[in-house]
Amino acid sequence: MKTVEEPLEGAAVLAERVARAETVVIFTGAGISTESGIPDFRGPNGLWTKIKPIYYDEFVSSETARREDWKRRFAFRDQVAAVEPNVAHRAIARLIASGKANAVITQNIDGLHGRAGVPADRLIELHGNATYATCLSCDARVELDEAEAIIAATGRTPRCACGGLIKAAVISFGQAMPSREMQRAEEAIQQADLFVAVGSSLTVQPAATLPMIAKYEGAELIIVNAESTPLDGLADRVLRGSIGTVFSRL
Ligand code: NAD
Question: Which among 41, 50, 86 is the best mutation to test ligand 1's pocket, defined by most ligand atoms within 8 Å of the CB?
Answer without folding.
Answer: 41
